[in-house]
Amino acid sequence: MKSMRAQDANVHFVGVGGPKMRAEGMECLREAETLSVVGLIEVLKNFSFFKKALQDLSEEVLKRQVEAFIPIDFPDFNLRLCEKVKKHGVKVVYYVCPQVWAWRRSRVHQIARVVDVLLTIFPFEAKYFKDKDLRVEFIGHPLCDEIERGNRPGDPERGRGVLGLMPGSRHSEIDNHLPLLTPFIKEFLTRYPEAEIHIPCAQTLSEADLWNHMPELKGLKGLIVYAPGKSEEVLESCDAALIASGTSTLQGVLSNRPLSLFYRLNPITYWIGTKVIDLPYVGLANLVAGRKVHREYLQGEMTVENLLGEAEALMWDEGERKRMLDDFAEIHEKLGGPGASDRAAKVVLEA
């Protein structure tokens, strides 16, 4: 957004946006947080809300006679919106390719039909569209613009150091994760009273949202909960991290912090996912590398004992830390390096 404004002072942005986009001056018709849920059950509960938002936004796009519609990720909603505006001649430049490489590969045909230009952030995505009449541009991952790869941290002294803990950015995620993370936090700080656990609050949540799930930990020595928007600060200061699956794992990689991933879903949603998703890994870093560079604790494997053992290895196993950080350097290069936002802006203006 900044990159595009620098090239064309007459650009005006309107649509759905999160805190960062609103801070840059976007006129938001809907807040992104209100549309952010994960899982089939959760979507069904909010179906009427999504249906009205889809209708309102498509009408607004046409009423304002926009020159370009730039949907970002969120394919189940945005591809429907593309269908509605494309038939009226609006140019569609889709930023962040829907994850056809993970599931519902048939969407390749739909994307080719309703999108003019597709901007991909992972190097392996273009091959899924090689037979389609669609311009596909790999621009690199935007996180490479935001995070300068951190220096390798020194190995912390046994029993000391800072463990970062990132439970997720959605209400459904902290609902699923914090009931299990609470006893983990208590046990870890009991075993290692000189260590600390730092939890950054996502911009889509409040500190109260986190404390409501773990009231018994208030005042616990060594536990620090940060205000919203401090994720990068925590990653810069911690020695290692346990992170809920998602973009934050790439933040950890680019910040050069040893990490592992965890995730839990509604059991029905998880069962359905195992039937429709065909991937060797869940973690984005593992998918980019093409091998497991960090461990993944999913559903039943996400236990207090497993997380305790993993946290200890990440913090104090010197050999494991070095191996992981060497792998992270390779991933950083594969993600395209800095300049993704500038490249995206250039393609949009050309289109």
Radius of gyration: 21 Å
Domain count, please report it. Answer: 2
Order of helices and strands: HEHEHHEHEHEEHEHEHEHEHEHHEHHH
Structural class: alpha/beta
Give the number of helices: 16
Indicate the mean pLDDT: 85
**Share in helix:** 40-55%
Strand order of the largest sheet: 9-8-7-10-11-12
Question: What is the CATH-assigned architecture of the largest domain?
Answer: 3-Layer(aba) Sandwich
First-to-last CA distance: 16 Å
At the first level of CATH, the class of the largest domain is: Alpha Beta
Which topology of the largest domain does CATH recognise? Rossmann fold
Shape: globular
CATH homology superfamily of the largest domain: Glycogen Phosphorylase B
Poorly predicted regions: none
Tally the beta strands: 12
Q: Give the biggest sheet.
A: 6 strands, parallel
Percentage of residues in DSSP E strands? 5-15%
Describe the 3D structure.
By secondary structure, the chain is an alpha/beta fold. The protein folds into two domains: 2-140 and 337-350, Glycogen Phosphorylase B (Rossmann fold), CATH 3.40.50.2000; 162-334, 3-Layer(aba) Sandwich (Rossmann fold), CATH 3.40.50.2000. It contains 16 helices and twelve strands. The protein has helices spanning 2-7, 19-23, 40-45, 47-63, 75-86, 107-114, 143-146, 171-191, 207-211, 231-237, 247-254, 267-276, 284-289, 304-316, 318-334, 340-350; strands spanning 14-17, 27-31, 68-69, 91-95, 117-120, 135-138, 162-166, 196-200, 223-226, 240-244, 259-263, 296-298. The strands form three sheets. It has a six-stranded parallel sheet with strand order 9-8-7-10-11-12, sandwiched between helices. Helix 9 links the parallel strand 8 and strand 9. Helix 4 packs parallel to helix 5 (75-86) and helix 8 packs across helix 14. The longest helix is centred in the middle third of the chain and has 21 residues, at 171-191. The two termini are 16 Å apart.
